[in-house]
Amino acid sequence: MLAQRTMLEEERFWLVKIVNFCLKCSIVLNLISCSPVSSIVSVAANAGISSKGFSASVDDTIIKAKIIKKISSLDISNFLDITVSVSMGEVLLTGYVDNQTSRLRVVESVWKVNDIKKVYNEIIVSPKVSFMDKTEDAIFESRIMTRLLFKSGINSNNYSIDVVDGTVFAIGLAEDLDEKTKFEQYLAEMNDIPKLVTIIKLINME
């Protein structure tokens, strides 16, 4: 039963990855107008099990769609290597770009989107990143999310995880101080995480 549940969670993780990739590709093809519908359907399915609730989840999804549209309009060859995570209006940017100029242009374009409270720019300048490295990061990310799913006292739906060059980034909204502490401590105790960056807020802080 446990093995079956783990398999389903991993399948859900890779499905989300594929959907996000297709969303980015659709923007390139000027089909961004279709993305809010599918995104909001996804939010509706998850809002009930996330501490953010439906309204805030929709707001974050709209902000994310607008940011992706902005980034895709830039003359950056590898914009698909950039990951956007949004939690209560705060934006975490991770991934890779070829040069410092592109990194700055991405941040400037993000700030042009309305309703953004803060931008955390963790994009790495690295012109040569192999497909194998990206795959290893994605697999590691899936493994971490699976661990969080089965950790008592932590609602994994409250958090977004991204792995870049082995570094684990986490952004989200904890139900209370106890969950925040458990979440950060649980990740910090994982021996296979070389570097951890967490941006976790509490509901009563919003």
Task: Briefly say what this structure is.
By secondary structure, this protein is of the alpha/beta class. It is about 50% helix and about 20% strand.
Helix content: 40-55%
Strand content: 15-25%
Shape, principal axes of CA atoms: globular
Would you tell me the structural class of the helices and strands? alpha/beta
Overall strand count: 6
SSE pattern, N- to C-terminal: HHHEEHEHEEHE
- Compute the number of helices: 6
What is the radius of gyration computed over CA atoms, rounded to a whole number of angstroms? 16 Å
Task: Profile the largest sheet.
Answer: 3 strands, mixed
Average of the residue pLDDT scores: 83
Low-confidence stretches: 27-41
Q: In order across it, which strands form the biggest sheet?
A: 1-2-3
The span between the termini is 38 Å
Structural key phrases:
alpha/beta; single chain; 206 residues; 3-stranded mixed sheet; 6 helices
Describe this structure in words.
The chain contains six helices and six strands; from the N terminus they run αααββαβαββαβ. Helices cover 49% and strands 21% of the residues. It has a three-stranded mixed β-sheet. The chain is an alpha/beta fold and 206 residues long. The model is unreliable at 27-41 (pLDDT under 50).
